[in-house]
Amino acid sequence: MITQSNAVPRQDLATSDDEFLEDVLDGLSQRQKTLPCKYFYDERGSQLFDDICQTEDYYVTRTERAIMERYIPEMAALVGPGASILEFGSGVGEKIRRLLTSLEAPHSYTPMDISYEPLMASAEQLRQEFPSLTVDPVCGDYLQPWPSMPVFLRSSQRLVYFPGSTLSNFTPEQASDFLSRIAKLLGSGGGLLIGVDLIKPIEVLHDAYNDREGVTAEFNKNVLSRINQALDGNFNLESFEHNAFFNEQHNRIEMHLCSQVDQRVEIAGQEFRFSQGESIHTENSYKYSTQHLHQLFSRTGYRVVDFWTDPNQYFSVHYCTV
Ligand code: AVI
Which SUPFAM superfamilies does the entry link to (predicted)? Predict the structure, then answer.
Protein backbone atom coordinates (compact mmCIF):
# COMPACT_ATOMS: atom_id res chain seq x y z
CA MET A 1 0.00 0.00 0.00
CA ILE A 2 1.06 3.58 -0.43
CA THR A 3 1.65 5.32 2.84
CA GLN A 4 0.91 9.00 2.43
CA SER A 5 2.62 9.90 5.69
CA ASN A 6 5.33 11.80 3.89
CA ALA A 7 3.02 13.34 1.35
CA VAL A 8 3.36 16.91 2.55
CA PRO A 9 2.26 19.64 0.17
CA ARG A 10 4.61 20.27 -2.73
CA GLN A 11 5.17 23.94 -2.00
CA ASP A 12 6.72 22.99 1.36
CA LEU A 13 9.45 21.04 -0.36
CA ALA A 14 10.18 22.34 -3.83
CA THR A 15 12.78 25.08 -4.04
CA SER A 16 11.10 28.41 -3.39
CA ASP A 17 11.45 31.40 -5.70
CA ASP A 18 13.30 33.15 -2.84
CA GLU A 19 15.95 30.46 -2.76
CA PHE A 20 16.11 30.40 -6.54
CA LEU A 21 16.60 34.19 -6.62
CA GLU A 22 19.27 34.04 -3.92
CA ASP A 23 21.18 31.29 -5.76
CA VAL A 24 20.95 33.11 -9.10
CA LEU A 25 22.06 36.49 -7.72
CA ASP A 26 24.87 34.82 -5.81
CA GLY A 27 26.01 32.71 -8.80
CA LEU A 28 26.01 35.62 -11.23
CA SER A 29 27.98 37.78 -8.80
CA GLN A 30 30.96 35.39 -8.85
CA ARG A 31 34.03 36.14 -10.97
CA GLN A 32 33.26 33.02 -13.01
CA LYS A 33 29.50 33.40 -13.24
CA THR A 34 27.71 30.16 -12.33
CA LEU A 35 24.20 28.75 -11.98
CA PRO A 36 23.44 25.55 -10.02
CA CYS A 37 22.50 22.77 -12.43
CA LYS A 38 19.51 21.75 -10.30
CA TYR A 39 17.66 24.71 -11.83
CA PHE A 40 17.65 23.03 -15.23
CA TYR A 41 14.81 20.82 -14.14
CA ASP A 42 11.56 22.75 -14.32
CA GLU A 43 8.78 21.11 -16.34
CA ARG A 44 10.24 22.17 -19.69
CA GLY A 45 13.80 21.30 -18.59
CA SER A 46 12.77 17.83 -17.43
CA GLN A 47 11.08 17.26 -20.79
CA LEU A 48 14.21 18.44 -22.60
CA PHE A 49 16.36 16.13 -20.47
CA ASP A 50 14.12 13.20 -21.47
CA ASP A 51 14.61 14.26 -25.08
CA ILE A 52 18.40 14.36 -24.62
CA CYS A 53 18.26 10.78 -23.33
CA GLN A 54 16.71 9.75 -26.63
CA THR A 55 19.21 11.45 -28.92
CA GLU A 56 21.64 9.27 -30.81
CA ASP A 57 24.62 11.22 -29.47
CA TYR A 58 23.84 10.91 -25.75
CA TYR A 59 25.06 7.37 -25.06
CA VAL A 60 24.51 7.48 -21.27
CA THR A 61 20.88 6.36 -20.97
CA ARG A 62 20.86 3.61 -23.55
CA THR A 63 24.22 2.24 -22.42
CA GLU A 64 23.09 1.97 -18.81
CA ARG A 65 19.83 0.39 -19.95
CA ALA A 66 21.72 -2.21 -22.01
CA ILE A 67 23.95 -3.09 -19.02
CA MET A 68 20.88 -3.47 -16.81
CA GLU A 69 19.10 -5.63 -19.40
CA ARG A 70 22.05 -7.93 -19.74
CA TYR A 71 23.18 -8.33 -16.15
CA ILE A 72 20.11 -7.74 -14.04
CA PRO A 73 19.73 -11.43 -13.10
CA GLU A 74 23.26 -11.34 -11.62
CA MET A 75 22.51 -8.11 -9.79
CA ALA A 76 19.23 -9.48 -8.43
CA ALA A 77 20.96 -12.64 -7.20
CA LEU A 78 23.49 -10.55 -5.27
CA VAL A 79 20.79 -8.36 -3.72
CA GLY A 80 18.78 -11.40 -2.63
CA PRO A 81 15.14 -11.77 -1.59
CA GLY A 82 12.95 -9.38 0.38
CA ALA A 83 14.83 -6.16 -0.31
CA SER A 84 13.59 -2.72 0.66
CA ILE A 85 14.70 -0.25 -1.96
CA LEU A 86 15.31 3.47 -1.68
CA GLU A 87 15.79 5.40 -4.91
CA PHE A 88 17.11 8.97 -4.94
CA GLY A 89 15.71 11.16 -7.72
CA SER A 90 13.20 8.55 -8.81
CA GLY A 91 11.43 10.88 -11.30
CA VAL A 92 8.50 9.13 -12.94
CA GLY A 93 9.75 5.73 -11.72
CA GLU A 94 10.83 4.50 -15.11
CA LYS A 95 14.06 2.67 -14.17
CA ILE A 96 12.81 0.93 -11.07
CA ARG A 97 10.30 -1.28 -12.91
CA ARG A 98 13.00 -3.39 -14.48
CA LEU A 99 14.64 -3.91 -11.11
CA LEU A 100 11.40 -4.64 -9.28
CA THR A 101 10.42 -7.31 -11.79
CA SER A 102 13.83 -8.99 -11.48
CA LEU A 103 14.31 -8.95 -7.70
CA GLU A 104 12.96 -11.83 -5.69
CA ALA A 105 9.95 -10.75 -3.62
CA PRO A 106 10.99 -7.12 -3.03
CA HIS A 107 9.40 -5.91 0.21
CA SER A 108 9.15 -2.14 -0.20
CA TYR A 109 10.05 0.75 -2.45
CA THR A 110 10.78 4.27 -1.21
CA PRO A 111 11.12 6.70 -4.10
CA MET A 112 12.53 10.12 -3.17
CA ASP A 113 12.06 13.05 -5.50
CA ILE A 114 11.62 16.81 -5.30
CA SER A 115 8.67 16.93 -7.73
CA TYR A 116 5.59 16.09 -5.75
CA GLU A 117 2.97 15.32 -8.41
CA PRO A 118 5.05 12.98 -10.62
CA LEU A 119 6.30 11.23 -7.46
CA MET A 120 2.79 10.56 -6.16
CA ALA A 121 1.44 9.59 -9.58
CA SER A 122 4.21 7.08 -10.20
CA ALA A 123 3.84 5.64 -6.67
CA GLU A 124 0.15 5.07 -7.36
CA GLN A 125 0.96 3.40 -10.65
CA LEU A 126 3.54 1.10 -9.05
CA ARG A 127 1.10 0.09 -6.33
CA GLN A 128 -1.24 -1.14 -9.02
CA GLU A 129 1.48 -2.95 -10.92
CA PHE A 130 3.08 -4.54 -7.84
CA PRO A 131 0.24 -5.18 -5.38
CA SER A 132 2.40 -6.96 -2.82
CA LEU A 133 4.95 -4.12 -2.67
CA THR A 134 4.76 -1.40 0.00
CA VAL A 135 5.38 1.92 -1.75
CA ASP A 136 6.30 4.81 0.53
CA PRO A 137 7.06 7.95 -1.50
CA VAL A 138 9.03 10.71 0.20
CA CYS A 139 9.13 14.17 -1.28
CA GLY A 140 12.37 16.06 -0.79
CA ASP A 141 15.69 17.29 -2.13
CA TYR A 142 18.16 14.46 -1.58
CA LEU A 143 21.05 16.92 -1.25
CA GLN A 144 19.36 18.42 1.81
CA PRO A 145 18.71 16.62 5.13
CA TRP A 146 16.53 13.63 4.24
CA PRO A 147 12.87 13.42 5.23
CA SER A 148 11.93 10.48 7.43
CA MET A 149 11.57 7.18 5.64
CA PRO A 150 10.11 4.80 8.20
CA VAL A 151 9.35 1.89 5.88
CA PHE A 152 12.88 1.77 4.50
CA LEU A 153 14.50 2.12 7.90
CA ARG A 154 12.42 -0.67 9.42
CA SER A 155 13.98 -3.13 6.99
CA SER A 156 17.17 -5.07 7.59
CA GLN A 157 17.54 -5.76 3.84
CA ARG A 158 18.28 -2.26 2.62
CA LEU A 159 19.22 -1.40 -0.95
CA VAL A 160 19.85 2.09 -2.30
CA TYR A 161 19.41 2.42 -6.05
CA PHE A 162 21.08 5.45 -7.65
CA PRO A 163 21.06 5.07 -11.43
CA GLY A 164 21.61 7.53 -14.28
CA SER A 165 25.06 8.79 -13.21
CA THR A 166 23.55 11.62 -11.21
CA LEU A 167 26.72 11.33 -9.12
CA SER A 168 28.50 12.89 -12.14
CA ASN A 169 26.84 16.23 -11.44
CA PHE A 170 28.17 16.39 -7.88
CA THR A 171 31.49 18.01 -7.01
CA PRO A 172 34.05 15.44 -5.75
CA GLU A 173 33.35 16.62 -2.16
CA GLN A 174 29.59 16.33 -2.62
CA ALA A 175 30.04 12.85 -4.11
CA SER A 176 32.10 11.69 -1.11
CA ASP A 177 29.72 13.22 1.41
CA PHE A 178 26.67 11.81 -0.32
CA LEU A 179 28.09 8.29 -0.53
CA SER A 180 29.17 8.44 3.13
CA ARG A 181 25.70 9.54 4.20
CA ILE A 182 24.16 6.67 2.25
CA ALA A 183 26.59 4.18 3.82
CA LYS A 184 25.51 5.35 7.29
CA LEU A 185 21.86 5.10 6.33
CA LEU A 186 22.31 1.60 4.91
CA GLY A 187 24.16 0.23 7.91
CA SER A 188 26.19 -2.95 7.93
CA GLY A 189 25.05 -5.40 5.25
CA GLY A 190 23.12 -2.82 3.23
CA GLY A 191 23.70 -2.58 -0.53
CA LEU A 192 24.20 0.18 -3.08
CA LEU A 193 23.43 -0.31 -6.78
CA ILE A 194 24.77 2.70 -8.64
CA GLY A 195 25.22 3.68 -12.28
CA VAL A 196 28.20 5.95 -13.03
CA ASP A 197 29.55 7.27 -16.33
CA LEU A 198 33.15 6.43 -17.25
CA ILE A 199 36.04 8.27 -18.93
CA LYS A 200 36.04 7.68 -22.68
CA PRO A 201 37.36 9.21 -25.92
CA ILE A 202 36.88 12.97 -25.94
CA GLU A 203 35.02 12.98 -29.27
CA VAL A 204 32.33 10.69 -27.85
CA LEU A 205 31.93 12.96 -24.83
CA HIS A 206 31.94 16.07 -26.97
CA ASP A 207 29.19 14.76 -29.25
CA ALA A 208 27.06 13.62 -26.30
CA TYR A 209 26.95 17.14 -24.86
CA ASN A 210 26.75 18.88 -28.25
CA ASP A 211 24.12 16.69 -29.86
CA ARG A 212 23.35 17.28 -33.53
CA GLU A 213 19.69 18.05 -32.88
CA GLY A 214 20.60 20.88 -30.53
CA VAL A 215 18.52 19.50 -27.64
CA THR A 216 21.34 19.92 -25.10
CA ALA A 217 21.80 23.52 -26.22
CA GLU A 218 18.09 24.15 -25.67
CA PHE A 219 18.24 22.39 -22.29
CA ASN A 220 21.16 24.60 -21.26
CA LYS A 221 19.47 27.82 -22.41
CA ASN A 222 16.19 26.87 -20.75
CA VAL A 223 17.62 27.92 -17.39
CA LEU A 224 17.74 31.50 -18.72
CA SER A 225 14.05 31.32 -19.74
CA ARG A 226 13.28 30.02 -16.29
CA ILE A 227 15.04 33.02 -14.73
CA ASN A 228 13.17 35.38 -17.08
CA GLN A 229 9.84 33.87 -16.13
CA ALA A 230 10.20 33.21 -12.42
CA LEU A 231 12.56 36.03 -11.41
CA ASP A 232 11.61 38.84 -13.73
CA GLY A 233 14.83 38.58 -15.75
CA ASN A 234 15.44 39.95 -19.23
CA PHE A 235 18.00 37.53 -20.70
CA ASN A 236 18.00 37.63 -24.48
CA LEU A 237 18.38 33.93 -25.28
CA GLU A 238 19.62 34.67 -28.78
CA SER A 239 22.66 36.43 -27.41
CA PHE A 240 23.96 33.40 -25.46
CA GLU A 241 25.45 30.30 -26.98
CA HIS A 242 25.73 26.78 -25.60
CA ASN A 243 29.32 25.62 -25.09
CA ALA A 244 30.21 22.16 -23.73
CA PHE A 245 33.75 20.81 -23.60
CA PHE A 246 35.81 18.22 -21.73
CA ASN A 247 38.10 19.65 -19.07
CA GLU A 248 40.92 17.09 -18.98
CA GLN A 249 42.43 18.43 -15.79
CA HIS A 250 39.24 17.75 -13.83
CA ASN A 251 37.89 14.84 -15.90
CA ARG A 252 34.61 16.61 -16.45
CA ILE A 253 32.38 17.94 -19.15
CA GLU A 254 31.67 21.59 -18.45
CA MET A 255 28.59 23.27 -19.83
CA HIS A 256 28.60 27.03 -20.24
CA LEU A 257 26.40 29.71 -21.77
CA CYS A 258 28.58 32.22 -23.60
CA SER A 259 27.57 35.81 -24.13
CA GLN A 260 27.93 36.68 -27.80
CA VAL A 261 28.09 40.43 -27.19
CA ASP A 262 28.84 42.97 -24.47
CA GLN A 263 25.52 43.30 -22.68
CA ARG A 264 23.66 44.03 -19.47
CA VAL A 265 20.99 41.79 -18.01
CA GLU A 266 18.55 42.71 -15.27
CA ILE A 267 17.16 40.21 -12.77
CA ALA A 268 14.68 41.34 -10.14
CA GLY A 269 16.00 44.87 -10.53
CA GLN A 270 19.68 43.93 -10.20
CA GLU A 271 21.99 44.49 -13.14
CA PHE A 272 24.70 42.10 -14.37
CA ARG A 273 27.25 42.96 -17.04
CA PHE A 274 28.55 40.45 -19.54
CA SER A 275 31.43 41.08 -21.87
CA GLN A 276 31.59 39.37 -25.24
CA GLY A 277 32.84 35.80 -24.76
CA GLU A 278 32.17 35.76 -21.02
CA SER A 279 30.35 32.64 -19.84
CA ILE A 280 28.00 31.36 -17.18
CA HIS A 281 29.17 27.94 -15.99
CA THR A 282 25.97 25.89 -15.72
CA GLU A 283 26.99 22.26 -15.16
CA ASN A 284 29.82 19.83 -14.50
CA SER A 285 29.51 16.19 -15.46
CA TYR A 286 32.40 14.23 -13.95
CA LYS A 287 33.65 11.10 -15.70
CA TYR A 288 35.26 8.42 -13.55
CA SER A 289 37.68 5.58 -14.12
CA THR A 290 36.69 2.31 -12.44
CA GLN A 291 39.87 2.60 -10.38
CA HIS A 292 38.93 6.05 -9.13
CA LEU A 293 35.40 4.83 -8.38
CA HIS A 294 36.72 1.89 -6.37
CA GLN A 295 38.89 4.23 -4.32
CA LEU A 296 35.90 6.51 -3.78
CA PHE A 297 33.68 3.60 -2.66
CA SER A 298 36.31 2.26 -0.31
CA ARG A 299 36.97 5.72 1.20
CA THR A 300 33.27 6.21 1.85
CA GLY A 301 32.63 2.90 3.59
CA TYR A 302 31.83 0.34 0.88
CA ARG A 303 33.18 -2.91 -0.46
CA VAL A 304 32.72 -3.41 -4.21
CA VAL A 305 31.03 -6.80 -4.65
CA ASP A 306 30.80 -6.70 -8.44
CA PHE A 307 30.48 -4.29 -11.34
CA TRP A 308 29.33 -4.44 -14.92
CA THR A 309 30.16 -2.38 -18.02
CA ASP A 310 29.27 -2.36 -21.72
CA PRO A 311 31.66 -3.65 -24.43
CA ASN A 312 33.03 -0.12 -25.01
CA GLN A 313 33.43 0.43 -21.27
CA TYR A 314 31.50 3.69 -21.54
CA PHE A 315 29.37 3.22 -18.42
CA SER A 316 29.45 1.20 -15.21
CA VAL A 317 26.95 -0.24 -12.76
CA HIS A 318 28.41 -1.17 -9.37
CA TYR A 319 26.99 -3.24 -6.57
CA CYS A 320 28.65 -2.42 -3.25
CA THR A 321 27.89 -3.39 0.31
CA VAL A 322 28.61 -1.61 3.57
C1 AVI B 1 21.62 14.00 -15.18
N2 AVI B 1 23.03 13.97 -15.60
C3 AVI B 1 23.64 12.69 -15.30
C4 AVI B 1 23.25 14.40 -17.00
C5 AVI B 1 24.75 14.31 -17.36
O6 AVI B 1 25.06 13.65 -18.34
O7 AVI B 1 25.57 14.85 -16.63
C8 AVI B 1 22.74 15.80 -17.24
C9 AVI B 1 23.00 16.27 -18.65
N10 AVI B 1 23.53 17.42 -18.97
C11 AVI B 1 23.60 17.52 -20.28
N12 AVI B 1 23.18 16.40 -20.82
C13 AVI B 1 22.79 15.61 -19.80
Answer: S-adenosyl-L-methionine-dependent methyltransferases (SSF53335)
| E strand intervals along 102-251 | 108-113, 134-135, 138-139, 158-162, 191-197, 240-247
Q: Is the pTM of this model over 0.90?
A: yes
Distance 241 CA to ligand 1 centre (A): 18
Dihedral sign for Cα 142, 290, 317, 205, please. positive
Q: How far apart are CA 133 and CA 85, in angstroms?
A: 11
Cα of 285 vs centre of ligand 1, distance in Å, is 7
The tens digit of pLDDT for each residue in 278-313 reads 999 999 999 999 999 999 999 999 999 999 999 999
Ligand 1: which of 209, 218, 315 to mutate, most ligand atoms within 8 Å of CB?
209
Q: Is 137 in the pocket of ligand 1 (CB under 6 A)?
A: no
Q: Could you tell me if the ipTM is greater than 0.90?
A: yes
pLDDT at 12 over 80: no
Ligand 1 center to 37 CA (angstroms): 9
The helix or strand, by DSSP H or E, that contains position 181, with its residue range, turns out to be helix 172-186
Q: Is 283 in the pocket of ligand 1 (CB under 6 A)?
A: yes
- C-alpha to C-alpha distance for 224 and 44, rounded to whole angstroms: 12
154 touches 121 (CB < 8 A): no
DSSP classification of residue 278: -
